[in-house]
Amino acid sequence: MTTRIVLPAPALAVAVTAFLGLTTIGRSAEEAPKVNQKQLLEALNQKKTQALAEAEEAQLLISGYEEFLEDPELNAEERPEIRKSLIKERSRYKQHRSRAGRIQVAQQELRRLPHDPAVNLHTLKEAYAGLDSLAARGKEAWNEVLATREKFVGNLEREHEQHLRDAQDALRTLNVKEQATELLLHSVDPNSGNTSDSEFFVTLKLPAVRTAVERGFRIAANPNDKQRQAQTTLLALIAYSQYFWDHYSGKRSLLGEDELPSDRHRNIFGVPDGKVLTSDMITHNNSHFYYLAPKARERFNKTLERIWGEEALSVTTWNQKYDEQFAHACRALATVSNDYLVPNPEVFTIMEKVELLLNELDLVHKAINQLDSNYRAQMATAKQFGDEARLSSAHYNAEIWSKEAERLLGGFEQGHALLAQQLRDSGEEGWIPDARRISESALIIGKAQKRFYSVRKVKNDLKELLSDR
């Protein structure tokens, strides 16, 4: 198969007018002979056309060699030489296509380069002259402005710090971790004397769900660790709500009679047993071990992380062998109504209390975020410097640009020299354009031309601002 390459029209190469005073190394920009950019573009275009033609020729040979190799009647002795030739032509094709691409980039950068006779090495040096001293004076003046402004923002900072201390006190008073731990431990304590009959029923039955969950998630029980007990109790509550997903999410009333989940097919994931492996709740399984997908892990772990942070348990796998034990414990904690299992509402009440605690925690955090937002807004208003704000950016830019002056001026001069040398070499037979350096030279010359006017403006701004002071 032959690749057809459309060569660019010669008109594209001559669309730019002659510009650019180019220098040679050791001569000033004003003394350097002017080089016609159109000539360099035309020379590059010829080389690009030649490279594309070479690549097309290589592609034709590649196709021919491939056809030879596909011929079953080709002698075995001839195949190695043909393969060598094929490899050689493929390399030649890539080489010339790459060269053509680099030349095209160089042409593009040259075409983007504007013709600005006002910018040369002499005028650039004049623009940068004295910039470093102006930058130093500007920085000193800006430091004086900042010192004055600090007096205005000091009180604002102290007020903000006091507000933050008050918010932290509120967090300590709320102490969600401790309150949640006490609430969850109380929910499995049958010895509490102030429980109702329904609460007492839950304290008797919920530990069985917790035990099944601990075993299924391979969590080592620790009766002496109250925090661990509270966390596994919350995991049991979450698992219970997953088991009765249709009630907890309020979807039972929306389902038709045929769509009601069979109570015999409930599970800890809240999906039909026969569809667990194809659901989005697990990534894969290894025998009876189910590896929870991010969605399933978040359902179990997120609430614990919000309460206990880095100390929270994190579950990743479920042992399917404990499904029946878990289901039996859930059914024991439920009631039967109209031939369907109905979850114990007291269990959901405990979860709602946990959610209320977390909602209070969110409110405090939102209040802290609002304090920060208000503080930033007030601080931004307090730091409005009016016309003096120009002093900040002006002295900063002057300082940065004065440091880069030597490198930019050297690059500007060397870039001109490189382009001039490339144009001289283009008349020689066998010339291979240094396309990469041509692109780099065009870029740095263009940068210097733009920076020329920026430097002049920042010098004028600094002189104006410093004279007013």
Secondary structure layout:
Elements (H helix, E strand, L loop, with lengths): L9 H4 L23 H34 L8 H34 L8 H8 L2 H44 L1 H11 L10 H20 L9 H18 L1 H4 L33 E5 L2 E4 L1 H15 L8 E3 L3 H10 L2 E3 L2 E3 L2 H38 L6 H37 L9 H34 L1
Antiparallel strand pairs: 1-2, 2-3, 4-5
Secondary-structure class: mainly alpha
Strand-residue proportion: under 5%
**What does the radius of gyration come to?**
39 Å
Ends distance: 75 Å
Number of helices: 14
> Can you give the mean pLDDT?
83
* Structural domains: how many: 2
> Low-confidence parts lasting 5 or more residues at pLDDT below 50?
1-33
Please outline the major beta sheet: 3 strands, antiparallel
Helix content: 55-70%
Count the beta strands: 5
Order of helices and strands: HHHHHHHHHEEHEHEEHHH
Shape: flat
Within the largest sheet, what's the order of strands? 1-2-3
Description:
- The chain is mainly alpha-helical and 469 residues long.
- It has two domains: 10-133 and 388-468, no CATH class; 176-366, no CATH class.
- It has 14 helices and five strands.
- The strands form two sheets. Strands 1-2-3 form a three-stranded antiparallel beta sheet. The protein has a two-stranded antiparallel ribbon with strand order 4-5.
- Helix 5 (131-174) runs antiparallel to helix 12 (345-382) and helix 5 crosses helix 13.
- It is flat.
Short overview:
The protein is mainly α. The chain is built from 14 helices and five strands.
Features:
three-stranded antiparallel sheet, 5 strands, 469 residues, disordered N terminus
